[in-house]
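note to self: dont lose this again. the chain is below, predicted strucutre after it. 220 aa total, dont forget to put it in the shared folder this time
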Amino acid sequence: MVLAATLGRAAAPLVIEDWAQHSPGAKGIPAGWTRYETPGGRPAYDFTVVEDAGRRALLLRSHDEHSTIAKEIRVDLHATPVLEWNWKIVALPSGADIRHKATSDLTAHVFVIWPRFPAMLRSRLIGYVWEESLPVGTVVTSRKTGAVRFLVVRSGTRELSQWLTDRRNVLEDYRRIFGEEPEDPRAIGLSIDTNDTHSGAETLFGRIGFLPAATGAARR
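---
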């Protein structure tokens, strides 16, 4: 009976980051995160831990540069396949369009990372992004590295400057995008990119975590 109860118990949510251990006003790369190099990015890491609308968050700003950070994770993707994150997009880079290399910029977005060697050729990254003009659900291969696929989860400008929650079933997305069964991801990344359009962007990220599949998808 004990075994049956254990087998029937749902997997517990996994919190990756909620910024609770970071002091408001802290700047640069947050503790527990590392720089994630992107060729030609000229990263500035203009990041600040803030309080916004009653929640702790990381504010990411960018102007004519590309900054990416990553955090190692341990997640059982079959038990907790749903990535959930809270974000507030304040500004999108002007003239950005990820379908073209010359304008391939994005306001801050979240990556799920499967590192492999050599990284630029064999790693797998899914970037969940807010793109101004492309329809939700669009998948675009990065024009700079074939290791990255961008999946548009929000589009347009109507919901700017609002705290929103999104969820994606990463296990299902990986199978559909790469056509293979995934291993467990090894890292989460946050990135903001304005070095092609030479413009600016601004985003806040709140809580980031993984949930059981029964949680489903959210848009609010």
